[in-house]
């Protein structure tokens, strides 16, 4: 793959150099004219090159999809994510159609109407009808997109308390994540950074009765098919809780609690069986195997085999280790989740230790 | 309004007989002549652009080959590149300063500063700006601000590295990141100077356009360039002061213990006293400028491109009034869409809905403009000068980059692509590359006006264009895929954990294209500096253009026109206009009718 890419780049570069050479060559015989204003030869040549640019854009698009279609995010692992993906698909198809057409018009016209001495351009200053058409079409299309988008957005952002979501706090600091489950009462204890002391790293209020059954962990587990309401805090600077596979993101703002809710609909195991993910993991492991070989040759430990896991990433610049601020997310069946959470110590137990 | 211009102009004319004694200092350094100031802006902007692009090459190297050691780091980054390994902090500094320099110093000052200064007086028929002194002050404040920004690169703990958006608390607390000490202080000082410079300039542009138009130059006869500079200046006056207020509050939070943006913070083992502030307030203030800023960058480019396209297509710009209306719409909407940078900031989701609505509205005037440019080409007689190529390139990248704005402006879709490389790809195409193309188009077109008739070499121009556009698409089209894969921006490396390992190929390709594109810029730099001194002299009106600047003297004189100021009798786009019986052009054998030529006998008067 890499070899192919390198060859491709070399070929493209070669073409560029060749074109440059040609331009130089073509420019020589006419240089006795001594003019820096484009003449018919220039117009002709540049006109054809505009067609070349059109071809380049189309080929680049096709190549990118062909080569890198597999790096894109897999199917959404949350209920609202499917809606988002649908809207994304519609928007993408639309912009690709518009893009392909308008680039064609622009660059084909650049070729077709390339200048020629003695040719007469059409004096065409205005046409209200035409302008009305290309004002009203975007208006209609955008109105559709806006309405669809707004419905999706308010669906995602408005959390219905009747749904009784599991409440989980995501706590961000430079450069790690912590999660706090609300426990049996499904209500988080009060917390403030001013209460941070010793083992109480999140500043949870020890006297708050709601806090006693809270569970603080470093790995996020979620039961499949249940709505989760994330209450998000930060203790130092802005962070952003980004869970790309769930199409979820919300900033973590010191001084306030932000929120985001979604329902995961695919367990980690199921996602590992997805065709896209299987291919992606296979590809990554091939790359890692190559690297391992190098490492072994140097006398170092080889890399472990990679296995897919959902990730919570930091997506707001937050300091020198921003690139490495992440947490594993495990989505599992309700039984597995209950078994796991039963093993975790509650806040009151943790503090007593 | 233009009535007030007359006495002034007459005044100047009388003044013209005795030449001011010009010393080296008053002519080249503290010049009050708009033509010299525009060149000063341009050359300062190009210098800053060189730094900005060089920085991007350094971080592109890091992104493509994160495990590789480069001596280039040791050479350019010193203690932050020891043993050829780039320090993560300096990586962030490079992206921060790259963004700051390119947005403000190159595309704002370099583009609007250069061409507003050069073209406003020349195209409206004025002897100079309304206030030459303020104009000079504006440039020198910009210069000072550039100097402070460059000095900030050399402070002990490193330059500002909290991202060009400098969101607090990261930018407010030196404990949180290395660059938030002296580096950030200098950054803020530099920006404060920059804002002052921009305001002085903008007020001057507005007053000049409104008051100093020559006789007959009504607002609807103005070239679109002047319209775009006027609107740019107005947006600047409306929004830049808000950034200044944000910067001042940030300075107070940093140095005087206030809590505008800080609350409930525990950092480096202690609780800070700050309470009650909100970082989201800063985001609102920042983007209230930050978003109009992208239109401050792109509107002048649009104006230049419209003008160059009409001239080289030998056709009037299609829908002159629609072009003005769409610019007005864009300028107005630009001030009420800032929230689309903040969909997931934690602000009320209802606000998100409002901003989605206003943001997607901007697509309408943008679409109108794109279609009007395309129609301007239709049935033209396209003269493929380098400026024309860059103009066509501008429309191409503006469309490609603009379309992805429909994804990002939709709050529901933005959730998952927010702050990923998808955003980076989008704004580089739509405002970075497009505005740069506008800048280059302007330079190729008006170089003869700036440097007394000398012209840039066209073949080097062609090479420059082709390398740049191929490089630009090669860099930014694949970058969308990295974003759609979910990779956050501003990551020092994406191979620290395995999930994004398969993106390395794409990063390598992008970096190679980035280097190719940068090498292309060397052709331009050589062409530019060589042609200043040795460029071939062309005719007085090399592109056969209708606008007034080409009637001014080729040799730069104080006051622009040796004789009286020309009067204007027609719109700016009478290209290929035929006479009544359609037997020939309005002026026989000449396919353009300059603005200062009265309506001919056998001609129908057209209002565009």
Q: Give the CATH topology of the domain at 164-270 and 306-352 in chain A.
A: Immunoglobulin-like
How many strand segments of chain A? 10
User: What string, H for helix and E for strand, traces the elements of chain B in order?
Assistant: HHHHHHHHEEHHHHHHHHH
Please tell me how large the radius of gyration of chain B is. Answer: 25 Å
CATH architecture annotation of chain B: Up-down Bundle
Structural class of chain B: mainly alpha
CATH class membership of the domain at 164-270 and 306-352 in chain A: Mainly Beta
Structural overview:
The complex is a heterodimer of chains A (about 350) and B (about 600). Chain A is elongated and about 90 Å long. Helices cover about 45% and strands about 15% of the residues of chain A. In chain A, a hairpin with a 2-residue loop joins β1 and β2. In chain A, strands 3-2-1-5-8 form a 5-stranded mixed beta sheet, with no helix packed on it. A 5-stranded mixed beta sheet of chain A has the order 4-10-9-6-7, with helices on one face. Chain A has about 350 residues and is an alpha+beta fold. Chain A has a domain of about 150 residues: Immunoglobulin-like. The two termini of chain A are about 55 Å apart. With about 600 residues, chain B is mainly α. Chain B has one domain: Cytochrome c oxidase-like, subunit I domain (Cytochrome C Oxidase, Chain A, Up-down Bundle), CATH 1.20.210.10. Helix content of chain B is about 60%, strand content about 0%. Chain B has a two-stranded antiparallel ribbon. The N terminus of chain B is likely disordered. Chains A and B meet through α1, α2, α3, α4 and β7 of A and α5, β1, α9, α10 and α11 of B.
